[in-house]
Amino acid sequence: MSNLLVKYQQQFSKLFDFNPAKEQLLRMDFTAANTALKEELFTDTEKFSAYIQERLAAAGAAFGIGGYLEQRDLYARSALFGGTEPRRLHLGIDIWGKAGTKVYAPLGGIVHSVGYHEQKGDYGGTIILQHQFDAYVFYTLYGHVSIRDTQVLQERAFISQGELLAHFGAPVENGHWPPHLHFQVIEDLQGHRGDYPGVCRVSEKDKYADNCPDPDIILQLMQYAK
Asked: What is the C-alpha to C-alpha distance for residues 144 and 199, in angstroms, rounded to an integer?
């Protein structure tokens, strides 16, 4: 699927309002290499949110970005990711910013499904769009968005490229995370509706990476992250 996305790469539009010629984009690291991200910080949503905003302010950046196939111990903050082998490998790209940030559809499609997952650590408001290129169907997932955005969308409704789709949700509605957007590309939804794993076990990396290619093929933003 990656080759198909590369073929149409120049046709994709913005996901959010960011001008690389004038603005900074902060590359954020949530692996164990980030020693500042201690358990007492990431388990407290208010402190975690403050940490994100402080990092952005210090860098003079309105947004942070990163996370594809990043192994994150911070998922220990929620029982949702537990088990004999806990889920720790992130399958999308996160855009960190402020609640209410506008999210646009970087490519046209139809609303496949929406969902609301309120458990701590989950997506909160979730939108999945279905797309088709060269008779090939695939999906994009937008997690941690405002509940209201999920309520006004009708399944099978057409969404134009560049259309305002959603807004970053506040912690109370986004799974109790600092405000951000989880953007993920999915080849096969495997029967899911309004949901799809955004984090997998490290032992499942190859399987999920094959089904969820690098979202930056669409976004083309990591080249600007510093």
From this structure: 14
